[in-house]
Specification:
Length: 239
């Protein structure tokens, strides 16, 4: 039986760990990520006869590898390539939480936006149009209350459809200035065929523009037989 691997991402204090515990119950274990002091939590669950492994990524505000937590979360999505990534947002702080969601949408197509704490938002008079948000973001949006187990069944049904390819996503991607977009296009053309479409070329191009040297090293490690070239010369990496 095929087991689908799912990543759980989100800002701290969004109820992400509550959702993790709700889904996996006692079928979980913790340790450290290889070479890191960051806690690695993983669990399993079943839905409608289908098996899933859920990885609870460290809570982060971004995925720019400015900390060990951010690096672990980013690397798991990019290199381990889970079958789907659930991004947990706080319904009472949606605008702030969407920053991380937009970064994940740059990295992978298989995303579900999970708006948690919907009960708390309703108490504050906050109403969220999940259908409109789904149209804007181009991926499924599900409202839940992990603590009260509200919306969990809908979330799992949506997850099942996504991993089976029954939901086609068109993730929203940020558009930058003409100068940056031209640079992205130029770098993408240099990367064409290098990764055999394994990694998101636009996202890699953005990270190269940012000068993310740690990522360059990791990409080179994963593709030792090639040289990454931008503007016709090998990318330089400081030792």
């Amino acid at each position: 039986m095929r087991i689908s691997r799912i990543a759980l991402a989100g800002n701290p204090n969004t109820g992400k760990s509550t959702l993790f515990n709700t889904l996996t119950g006692l079928k979980q274990h913790t340790g450290n990520w290889p070479g890191k002091t960051v806690v690695h939590a993983e669990g399993s669950f079943e839905h409608n006869g289908e098996q899933y492994v859920l990885v609870d990524l460290p809570g982060t505000y971004s995925l720019f590898s400015n900390s060990a937590d951010e690096e672990v979360a980013r690397d798991h999505i990019v290199f381990d390539q889970p079958d789907a990534t659930i991004v947990v947002l706080d319904a009472t702080s949606l605008e702030r939480n969407l920053n991380l969601a937009l970064q994940v949408l740059e990295m992978t197509n298989n995303v579900i936006i999970c708006i948690n704490l919907i009960d708390e938002a309703e108490k504050k008079g906050i109403r969220i149009d999940d259908k409109k948000l789904a149209r804007e973001l181009g991926v499924p949006v599900v409202k839940i209350s992990a603590r009260n187990k509200k919306g969990i069944h809908q979330l799992l049904d949506t997850l099942s459809q996504l991993v089976k390819g029954q939901i086609v996503t068109t993730p929203y991607r940020m558009t930058y200035s003409n100068e940056i977009e031209e640079a992205i296009t130029k770098i993408e053309s240099k990367l064409e065929g290098y990764f055999d479409e394994k990694y998101p070329s636009r996202w890699v191009a953005l990270r190269l523009l940012d000068g993310d040297e740690e990522l360059i090293l990791k990409l080179q490690h994963h593709n030792k037989q090639h040289e990454v070239r931008t503007n016709g010369v090998p990318v330089s990496v400081k030792s």
